[in-house]
Amino acid sequence: MQDCIFCRIIRGELPATRIHEDNDAIVFMDIGPVVKGHLLVIPKEHYANLEETPAAVLAKLIALVQKIAAAQKKALRTDGVNIMQSNGRAAGQVVDHIHFHVIPRFLSDGHHWNWKAQKYADSGEMQALADKIKGILSGASSQQSG
Ligand code: 5GP
Ligand code: ZN
Question: What residue segments make up the domains of the chain, in order of their start?
């Protein structure tokens, strides 16, 4: 992808502070850290989002995320970690090259997610949404087996 900023980082056309590279992926410092030490794990192959990324690529990426989070924990003596992965503008995705955020957390970091738990009007509302998703899932699995 010619204009994708993460592809340009992979090709070395844009600078980035890299901490890891292998055949399939690179890991580098996020330029705008939510908490200092924030890393991005990306595949070298361009896929826009979760939906477009093959499961085999995702499997390698999440294994790398685990390894990177462990290194981050040891190196920065973190108290926790948030793994984030956004898809679509509604979800806050800005760069359309799939990436996992590995965000170090410290008890003293002062960061709070703006996470506001809502309430369903009643159990019927929740069940109706569950049934819709289950219906698609069972349709997909019967298509695969049929
Ligand atoms: P998104 O909102 O798409 O999940 O996250 C994109 C992330 O990429 C943001 O956290 C942003 O700070 C980071 N980012 C955007 N442009 C650059 C860049 O040129 N270099 C680096 N290192 N990070 C970037
Ligand atoms: Zn790209």
Answer: 5-115, 118-146
Domain 5-115 has CATH 3.40.225.10: no
Q: Give the DSSP per-residue string, 7-44.
A: HHHHTTSS---EEEE-SSEEEEE-SS-SSTT-EEEEES
Give me ligand 1 centre to Cα 94, in Å: 7
Nearest ligand to the CA of 16 is 1
Pocket test for ligand 1, best of 94, 96, 97, 98 (most atoms within 8 A of CB): 94
Reported pTM: 0.95
Nearest CA to ligand 1 atom 20: 31
pLDDT digits (tens, 9 = 90+) for 26-38: 999 999 999 999 9
Measured CA distances, 106 to 34, 81, 96 (Å): 12, 8, 29
